[in-house]
C-alpha cells in the first residue's frame, strides 16, 4: 500500500501550488488556454485565467489551515478513491482532487474529455513541487476496485453512477444552479457585480446565477442597463448560437421576454435557465420568497444577495470564488473522506 506524504507536507504542497498559479506568466497562460480551448471551445483565455486566480486565492495558507482545523486527518489506512470529474468549467474537479490528497487517500482520477489539459497541468505542477505525491495520484480510464467514489455529472449520469457504485461509499453530484435574490436596493455597481456571477464561464457552472428573485414592482430598466459591460459575451460563437436560438424560440412562440441584445430575461417558475437566458420570479413578501427557495433547495448550489442580506447567502460577485470549505451540493467531502479511515 502506498504511503501518503505527511499532512504538513500535503498542506504545504497546495500552498506552494497556489504560489505557482499566482505567478504564472502571461505567455504560459496563453499557451495553456490555447491548448485547453482546442479541447473545449468554451474555455477561453479569460475563463482559464479567472479559474486559475480563483484556485490560487483558495490556496492561501490561512485558508488551508482554517479548512482542515475541524477534522482529525490521520488515516490509519489509505483507500482508493475514484474521482469522476466534470468538464463544464475550467478545473472544476480540482477541489475533489485536493480533498482526496489532503485526507491521505489515493486519488484514482477519471478525467473529463472536456477538461484533461488543465487538470493534467495541475497534476504535473503538484508532482514538480513534491514528487512523492505521485504515490497518491493516478489517472485512470476506468474505475475498478475502488473503495469509494466521488462523481460529478448530469442528472442522467448520476442515475448510472448510483447504480454502478451504489454498494461502496459514494458522493454523487448532479445538475445544480445558483440564484440571486434582489430587494430593489441594489446600486448599479451591485448589479455589475451580479453580472459577473451570471456571465462568468458563460453561465455553464453550477455556481452561475441562472435565476433571480425580485420584489413586486421591480424596475428592470436599471438592471438591464447595468449589465451592458458584459455585452462582449455575445462575441463567443457558441454563446451567440444559444442566444439566437433561444430568442427565435421566444419570438416564434410569442412568449413574453426582455432582451438586452446579449441576454434574454424571462419570467419562469423553473430554476435552471438555458445558456443566454436569465429567469426571474417575483415575490410579494419574504415569507413567500422563503417558500419559493425552499421548494427548489435541492437544485440550488448557492444563493447570492447584496451584502448577504438574505440568510444563508453570499455577497454579489463572489459566486465563482469559493473557499475550500464551500462544498458542492453542501456535502462535506473532507468529512466523507476522513470517515473512510
Summarize the structure.
By secondary structure, the protein is an alpha/beta fold. It is built from twelve helices and twelve strands.
Radius of gyration from the CA trace?
21 Å
* Average residue-wise pLDDT: 95
CATH top level of the largest domain? Answer: Alpha Beta
The biggest sheet amounts to:
7 strands, mixed
Measured distance between first and last alpha carbons: 14 Å
Note the total helix count: 12
Please state how the strands of the largest beta sheet are arranged side by side.
8-9-10-7-6-11-12
CATH superfamily of the largest domain: Aldehyde Dehydrogenase, Chain A, domain 1
Question: Which of globular, elongated, flat, extended, rod-shaped describes the shape?
Answer: globular
Low-confidence stretches: none
Total of domains: 2
Run of helices and strands: HHHHEHEHEEHEEHEHHEEEHEEH
Number of strands: 12
Secondary structure: helix percent: 40-55%
Note the beta-strand portion.
15-25%
CATH architecture of the largest domain: 3-Layer(aba) Sandwich
Question: Structural class, judged by helices and strands?
Answer: alpha/beta
List the helices and strands and how they pair.
Elements: H1 7-22, H2 26-39, H3 45-58, H4 61-68, E1 80-84, H5 94-103, E2 106-110, H6 116-129, E3 137-139, E4 148-152, H7 155-165, E5 170-173, E6 177-181, H8 188-199, E7 209-215, H9 220-226, H10 237-252, E8 258-259, E9 264-267, E10 277-283, H11 286-295, E11 300-305, E12 314-315, H12 333-339
Helix pairs in contact: 1-3, 1-5, 1-6, 2-3, 2-6, 5-12, 8-9
Amino acid at each position: 500500500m502506498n504511503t501518503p506524504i505527511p499532512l504538513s507536507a500535503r498542506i504545504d504542497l497546495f500552498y506552494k501550488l497556489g504560489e505557482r498559479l499566482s505567478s504564472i506568466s502571461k505567455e504560459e497562460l496563453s499557451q495553456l488556454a490555447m491548448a485547453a480551448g482546442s479541447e473545449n471551445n468554451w474555455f477561453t483565455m479569460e475563463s482559464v485565467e479567472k479559474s486559475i486566480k480563483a484556485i490560487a486565492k483558495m490556496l492561501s495558507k490561512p485558508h488551508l489551515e482554517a479548512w482542515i482545523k475541524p477534522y482529525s486527518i490521520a488515516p490509519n489506512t489509505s483507500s482508493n478513491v475514484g474521482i469522476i470529474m466534470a468538464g463544464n468549467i475550467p478545473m472544476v474537479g480540482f477541489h475533489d482532487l485536493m480533498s482526496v490528497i489532503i485526507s491521505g487517500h489515493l486519488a484514482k482520477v477519471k478525467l473529463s474529455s472536456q477538461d484533461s489539459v488543465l487538470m493534467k497541468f495541475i497534476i504535473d505542477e503538484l508532482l514538480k513541487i513534491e514528487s512523492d505525491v505521485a504515490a497518491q495520484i493516478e489517472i485512470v480510464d476506468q474505475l475498478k476496485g475502488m473503495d469509494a467514489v466521488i462523481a460529478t455529472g448530469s442528472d442522467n449520469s448520476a442515475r448510472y453512477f448510483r447504480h454502478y457504485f451504489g454498494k461502496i461509499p459514494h458522493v454523487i453530484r448532479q445538475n445544480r444552479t445558483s440564484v440571486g435574490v434582489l430587494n430593489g436596493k441594489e446600486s448599479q455597481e451591485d448589479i455589475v457585480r451580479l453580472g459577473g456571477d451570471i456571465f462568468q464561464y458563460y453561465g455553464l457552472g453550477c455556481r452561475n446565477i441562472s435565476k433571480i428573485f425580485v420584489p413586486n414592482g421591480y424596475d428592470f430598466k436599471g438592471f438591464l442597463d447595468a449589465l451592458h459591460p458584459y455585452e462582449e459575451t455575445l462575441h463567443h460563437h457558441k454563446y451567440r448560437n444559444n442566444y439566437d436560438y433561444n430568442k427565435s424560440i421566444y419570438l416564434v412562440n410569442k412568449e413574453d421576454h426582455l432582451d438586452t441584445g446579449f441576454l434574454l430575461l424571462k419570467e419562469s417558475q423553473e430554476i435552471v435557465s438555458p445558456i443566454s437566458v436569465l429567469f426571474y420570479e417575483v415575490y410579494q413578501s419574504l415569507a413567500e420568497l422563503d417558500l419559493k427557495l425552499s421548494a427548489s433547495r435541492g437544485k440550488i448550489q448557492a444563493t447570492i444577495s447584496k451584502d448577504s442580506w438574505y440568510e444563508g447567502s453570499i455577497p454579489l460577485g463572489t459566486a465563482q470564488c469559493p473557499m475550500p470549505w464551500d462544498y458542492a451540493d453542501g456535502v462535506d467531502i473532507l468529512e466523507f473522506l476522513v470517515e473512510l479511515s
